[in-house]
Amino acid sequence: MDDPLMLARVQFALTAGTHFLFVALTLGLATLVALTQTRATLSGSAVAERMTRFWGQLYVINYAVGIVTGLVMEFQFGLNWSGMSRVVGEVIGAPLAMETVVAFFVESTFLGLWIFGWDRLNRWVHLGLIWVVAATAYFSAYFILVANGFLQRPVGFTMVDGQARLTDLGALLTNPTALLAFGHVVFGGLLTAGFFMAAVSGYHLFRRTAEADLFRRSMRTGLVAVVVSVMPVAAFGGMQYAYIQPTKHPGAQESAAQVAQFEARFGPGDYTPPGLATAGEVLMEVAWSLMFFLAFAMLVKLPFGRWLERGRVFHVLMMAALPLPYVAMISGWVFREVGRQPWMVYGVLKTEDALSDVGAGAVAVSFTVFTVLFAALVVVNVWLLARFARRGPEAVRLGAPGAPEPERPALTPTF
User: Fold this and answer.
1) Peptide bond before 342: cis, by omega within 30 degrees of 0?
2) What is the pLDDT of residues 186-211, one digit of tens each?
3) Angstrom distance (rounded) from CA 393 to CA 144
4) What is the DSSP string of 36-85?
């Protein structure tokens, strides 16, 4: 506990990784809720509308708690990583500011209108609101990945007096490392939401609840999302290897050449990432392989709607498979981020030079506070999701009409 650099790195890993788990479900579930509401609006289906309310309530819970984790995580940039802001703040400041505007203002505003607009707004206006929410969620993810893509593969800048100056905004916004990661995250979110929807539906179908029709349709929606996204998520992940840092694979010839260049520019040092990066890569591939085989089984069984309702073994399998997309995402995130070490900005700024001038004691205090806070938020989110998912559509309060106001007695004039 006496190494401020390691404490700051672990703290950011815990907070950013935890926040990312919220984001993945938020992205995918927002899309599935929007598609379900579109179906309800076009067809007038009462079941589709109840599906929208049920899954929409779970989405709102995850979004609300996830916003808190995002706000807390933002404090770390100024708290522990002022060196990064000082050197590359001009470059990554713009996309981070856009993410804040889109996520914390535009997205939250339209989500609030959607939540409180049930039966108050025109149905087409209300449908448009959820699509704006989904679109802004993707814009938010894009701008975050633009900033992260610069850390992975810095482009569109020049160094002036030790500070990075943005010279090509187009190169920054179209950085392949950011664009491919964005596609990867988009389909990863759909994959996560698909497994989440299938797991919750499997729970209710396994228990033979009275809402068999609603959860059979929800199960089909979740399985379709899994089948549609399982291959694109791998394709976008595979394309990123064309832009991978050579040092992520220490034994390769390109890695040795890159290390030699770093030693010539920055002096002797260890420029290869820790083994945790390789472990993350392997675990990500194993988790994806399991999801692929499950998706293949889903594709075979999808045409048989009654089987989706009666296949109790399949229901248990879907519930057990819920952690798989989360394992794949967090291990892939470890591979991406840990594999960049020892650089904060690859080949430009070392992580140790990005650290704020803080002592181990101060970092230890913030590490403890942040860890306890994030653990509490995760527990609260899981408890709320499980509670409302288990209670089913009958307990949904999203869009429910309020209690009628009591009649007031007529005022009798007195003389």
Assistant:
1) yes
2) 999 999 999 999 999 999 988 888 88
3) 34
4) HHHHHHHH--HHHHHHHHHHHHHHHHHHHHHHHHHHHHHHHHHHH-HHHH
| pLDDT above 50 for 318 | yes
Round to whole Å and give the CA distance between 133 and 127.
10
Q: Which strand (E) or helix (H) includes residue 389?
A: helix 360-391
Long-range contacts of 135-140 (CB under 8 A, 24+ apart): 136/102, 136/103, 136/106, 136/107, 136/110, 137/26, 137/27, 137/30, 137/103, 137/107, 138/27, 138/186, 139/98, 139/102, 140/99, 140/102, 140/103, 140/107
- CA–CA separation, 296 and 80 (whole Å): 45
DSSP-derived 3-state class of residue 348: coil
Number of Cβ within 10 Å of residue 292's Cβ equals: 15
**pTM to 2 decimal places:** 0.89
Tens-digit pLDDT profile for residues 393-414: 877 777 665 444 444 444 444 4
Cα separations in angstroms, 107 against 30, 133, 320, 398: 11, 5, 32, 18
Buried b (16+ CB within 10 A) or exposed e, 246-266: bbbbeeeeebeebbeebeeee
Report yes or no: 238 and 281 within 8 Å, Cβ to Cβ: no
Nearest-CA neighbor of 255 among 244, 242, 264?
Answer: 244
Cβ atoms of 4 and 13 within 8 Å: the answer is: no
Residue closest to 68 by CA, chosen among 380, 322, 398:
380
Report d(CA 133, CA 112) in Å as an integer: 10
Domain ranges of the chain: 4-395
DSSP label of 397: -
